[in-house]
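Might you be able to consider the sequence and fold that I enclose below?
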Amino acid sequence: MTEQVVDDMRAWQSRPLDAVYPVILIDAIVLKIREGQVANRPIYVAMGIDCNGFRDVLGIWIGPSGGEGAKQWMNMLTDLRNRGIVDACIVCCDGLKGLPQAIEATWPQAMVQTCVVHLVRNSMRYASKKHWSQISRNLKRIYHSSTVEAAEAEFEEFAETWGRTYPAMIALWRRSWPEFIPFLDFPIPIRKLIYTTNGIESLNARFRAATRRRGHFPDEQSALKVLYLACLERKHNRPNPSGQIAGWKSILNTLAITYGDRLEVN
C-alpha cells in the first residue's frame, strides 16, 4: 500500500458529514488482528442514508479485543457527531450490547430500531432445526402485522405455542420488544428500509470476501486499509455501498410527515 492510500484513508475517515441523516445503519464484524498476539477484534461499521436517499459508508472503527461494549459504541458515535451529524431520525442496529443507550445519549430524538432479520436469526439459535420453518412462518405473522396491537396479539399466540419448548427464545423477544416495534408505525416502503440492516450486511459480505484468505492482519492500519479499499471498489451488477434508494421520493414524503422539521424538508 502506498502512503497516498494511507493519507486518502485518513482524510476519508475524518471527512465532514451531513448534519442530519434520516436513517443510519450500524453493525459489526470480527477480524483477527495482531496486538502482541493475534486476537479477535470487533470492526464497527456505520452506513447513512442521506436526505437525498443516497447510501454512504460513514466510517469504520476497530475496537479492542474482548467484544463490543457501551464505551466503544460511545466513542464511535461521538466521532460521527463531531464530524457533523447533529441528528439521526432512525438508527437501525442488531441489538448490540450497550448500543441503544449510546444512541440515545448521542442523538436523544433518534428512534432505535432492532434489525428484525437479526432478531429472527438469533431466535433460531434456541430452536431445533426441525422447527425452523414453522417458527419462521409464525414469526413472519408478527413482523408483518399491520399495527402494534396486532403484533402483540400474534406474539402472545407465538409465546403460547413455543414458550414451554423454547423459553429462552420467547425471553429474547420480550427483551427486544421495545426496539422491535417502532417500524410498525410506518407504511411498507419505510418498513422495508429500516427493519433490516441488509444494506450494511452486503457491505460486510464484501469485507469478508476481501479478508477471507488473509488469516490475520499484522496491525490495525493494515486491516483498515483493506476495508477502506473494499468500500471504494465498484463492481458491475453487484451491490455497492453507495447509490440511491429505489423509490426514495415516496419514502421521503412519508418521512417528512413525521420528521419534516428535523429533515429540513419544506
The longest helix spans residues 248-263. The CA atoms of residues 138 and 158 lie 7 Å apart.
